[in-house]
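Structure Section — protein described below
Tokens — whole-number codes for backbone shape
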Amino acid sequence: MKEHTVPTSTPVIQVADADLEDLRTRLRATRWPEPWPVDGWQAGTDAAELRRLVMYWATDYTWRTHEAAVNALPSHFADIAGTRVHYLRYEAEHPDALPIVLTHGWPSTVMELTMLAERLAAPSRHGGDARDAFTVIIPSLPGFTFSPQRPALTDAEQTHDLWHRLMHDHLGFQRYAAHGGDLGAGVTSRLAEAHPEAVVGIHLLAAAAPAEYDPASLTPEEKTHLLSAAAWQAEEGAYMHQQNTRPLTLAPALNDSPAGLLSWILEKYRAWTDCGGDLSTRFGDDFLLTQASLYWFTGTISTSFRPYYEYAHQLTRRVRRVDVPTALALFPADLAQPPRSWAERTYHLTRYTRMPRGGHFAAHEEPALLADDITAFFGDLR
């Protein structure tokens, strides 16, 4: 039986003038910290760049234009197991297309995946073959922007279960594909592990580590990977440790200060992107501020931390073995570059691609490269 559907006859977001003015007032009244004698991004978010963006956000950034663009997206809502799930649906340009669910990560929203979705749903508009089209579903993770958080930390229904009920029970897809990066890679992996009868294959931008392994069995390449991952964690992983352990200590500051919120996520967009240190080569100011505005106006930066806390406290199922066909695409500026053998310890890996450029936000940075890899992988699985 299909779940109840809520049509999108009204806008998904409609910010009151008073709330918009409150944001601008807070931005103009930012209480800036004392500067340090450091250069640029050396010790965190660059103060000069943050001030520039805060000033633009407070004065010339036109939220109403971007609000209209968000509301023009093909949004839908479904009530799944007591959780209201927001999702975008892009209809394929070809009949009987393979459905695919795309899952975003942090600090992202569904907006990051729209260019990819357009290429997958209508490949002929981008130089491809219409017969390769997908029906594309992009849910907002629970607690991110338009999907409320799940009711309790100990819910039996985890996000991957919600996705299966959305795709299979609500939308009626008996078989479907899945793709994800970052947090979305974990959701996608658990989805395939739990529902191999429905998931034809998965395409990932990150691989879950083996649940267990014999250290004596590690190859030299795998040892190098683990050393690299540990070095990255020591240098870049402070945000993750905070969100894993004490997220609610951080949450009030970011929920109260838009400049603080922007600072927290802006540094990640620069550090994890193939931008050569210049964020503007990959993201326009308006895109970054729309992402921050969505978190701000929906008040969901706090609830976006929940996946980290739940995983660290073993409230999220660990991936043990995924037997459906799996593709792994690695973009050079992404967080980890596991060797093929490492991924094969957990997945039935049938495609392994090292991309020539791009980073953590590949769907926005390199939508054409990513769409081509997804299309090629699922070509034999349709």
